[in-house]
Amino acid sequence: MRLYEYMAKEIFRNNGIPVPKGQVFTSAEEIADFVAQIGPVAIKSQVLSGGRGKAGGIKFASNPQEATEKARELLATEIKGLKVDVILVEQKLSIEKELYLAITYDGARRKPLLIASAAGGVEIEQVAEELLVKRLIDINVGLQPYAAREITRQLGLKGQIAKHVVEIMLKLYQIFRKYDAELIEINPLVVADSQEFAADGKMTIDDEAAFRFGKDVPLVEEKTAVEQRAAELGISYVELEGEIGVMANGAGITMATLDLINEFGSSPRNFMDAGGGSSIQATASALEILLSTQPKALLINIFGGITRCDEVAKAIIQVKETMDIQVPMVIRLVGTNEEAGIALLREQDIETYRKIDEAVAKVVSFVKAKGA
Amino acid sequence: MAIIINETTKILVQGITGKQGQFHTSQMLASGSRIVGGISPGKGGQVVHGVRIYDTVEEAMMTEKAEASVIFVPAKQVKDCVFEAIDGGIKTLVIITEHVPLHDAMEIMAFAEMKHVQIVGPNTFGLISPGKSKIGIMPNSIFISGSVGVVARSGTLSYEIVSQLTNAGIGQSTVVGLGGDRIVGLSFIEVLAQFEADPETKAVVLVGEIGGNAEEEASIFIKTMSKPVIAFLAGKSAPPGKRMGHAGAIIERGKGTYDRKIIALKAAGAYIASLPWEVSDLVKKALTETIHVRF
């Protein structure tokens, strides 16, 4: 789950990392008083998209009237297709130096990874490798002050700034651990008037750790309505833009099925991994979700392990009886209780395939025939 | 031979009284696995499918010198159970459970590394040396014993490919599922190295997917191997930024793409199956070509 900038900054502030003076608004009419108090401001649209600045999502203003106008503009626009509902109005900083700080994880090394650079303020992908300082952290030991000091040495920092950046790194690591973060990024960490501020904040929290989140962890919903419904059923679902609705069991086989549909000249409407061992009811609900996205055809690809083919067949029949299915449906069933499943479907005149290539060829031919 | 597990491996089942734990214990016993005890706090002394239950791993280890353990407990409890197993002296751990938090997984791997414990998973179907032993949840019927090693990130896709091998008469030495999570224990390289050293294994099938850089890292090792590697990857058509079910299966910032992985694997000399049903033919081809080279 990605947090909005203002949420990440709230967490920073509560955990001792300095952030610029700022306030969140949902309407432009309320910000004049605040701007009158703090002087020139940056007005930042709160959207979950990288490259917000370049896309026009950040504006500057020097007085209350200008700020109100700019805020009005921002609240009426879309940034990279995302509607702006919330803006963060912040004191404009006179920047002396911009650093980059992030803590994430290295999947291959299985450890937390700190990344720092003295060349902050730009997208980190554009920073040359030799300007990045990377350091793996032993999770049993945590980030210790000596390691943070070494990082600041490599960044070329001296004196008070170096001391403060060490403090900020240690606090950032504490936040990383406390909030089960996948990524925390401060870009830039600004030095202004000999003080450091997290001028931007990105934070992604591990959804799998939700069971231990306290009340201080905000909730952000990024899923589409259909994706949300699927999540409630425990189904892994991603909307795509193609023609054929797909259900399979297992992430790898689902991905491979999508690849085959492309290979055969069509495109998938979605990724749906119905998982293993689902009940008849869950499978039926998954099918209903698929149909609600109005695909041109449906492909069901089941390799029964824990999942039993006869139960999948029963779910298909149940959905067919209760819903008016207008689109052609192709079913591939193999594995546990395959014979029973195929027999059930045959009674209903539903054809099944044992070979995946035949099933994909068939479903693509339906879509092509329709288009012609 | 075979790798990691064989007919002598003594196994504990943690979470044996749950629905999944019970069912898969019976399936593992049916495939020849030597299950010497189950763990279920508060249920010590009971028996499931003829297997004695203990309250704790430490208690079980007093009478049964198990080497391996398989974890079927809910995600919240996984870290505690893994620590218990490692502390109890278990050397090979298979974590079937999915949805283990990232930070728990990192703590698990750090402790395992310190204690020289092999972790398979989390979010894995497990591993099997057909005809000898199985620690996992895969259907027994699709495997036959033989000389091809299989290592995969994904479950059902591996069943698909193993079934094809079996239907083509190609048996397997050991089939290992690494798990679909962002942080998992055994890596492709560690498994490939064991297959390379295993006299029974003649060729290896690698089933990968988009996301991360596990396949790229594996390529570096494949280059040094004497045995042929046949690779199939899923996710060729996946759009960037969308997580395809597995926590690891996402193309982020242009990294972990299908094309980059294929280029790396090809450069390392691996045979590439661009469609899943090409795998068995490529295995046959690889085995004949390797023999030609040797003579």
Describe the fold and architecture:
The complex is a heterodimer of chains A (372) and B (295). With 372 residues, chain A is of the alpha+beta class. Helix content of chain A is 36%, strand content 26%. Chain A has helices at 5-14, 32-38, 64-75, 145-155, 159-178, 225-232, 251-263, 280-292, 309-322, 338-347, 356-371, and strands at residues 2-3, 22-25, 41-45, 58-61, 78-79, 82-83, 87-91, 97-106, 111-117, 132-136, 181-192, 195-198, 202-205, 236-239, 244-248, 270-273, 297-304, 329-335, 352-353. In chain A, the strands form 5 sheets. In chain A, strands 1, 8, 9, 10, 11, 12 and 13 form a 7-stranded antiparallel beta sheet that branches. Chain A has a 4-stranded antiparallel beta sheet with strand order 2-7-3-4. The longest helix of chain A has 20 residues, at 159-178. Chain A is elongated and about 80 Å long. The mean pLDDT of chain A is 90. In chain B, helix 3 (75-87) packs parallel to helix 4 and helix 7 packs parallel to helix 8 (258-267). Chain B has helices at 19-30, 57-63, 75-87, 102-114, 155-167, 188-197, 214-222, 258-267, 279-294; strands spanning 10-14, 34-39, 47-48, 51-54, 68-71, 92-95, 118-120, 126-129, 133-136, 145-152, 172-177, 203-209, 229-234, 271-272. Chain B is built from 9 helices and 14 strands. In chain B, 35% of the residues lie in helices and 22% in strands. Chain B has 295 residues and is α/β, with parallel strands linked by helices. Chain B is globular. The chains are: A alpha+beta (372), B alpha/beta (295). The interface between A and B is large, with 51 and 61 residues.
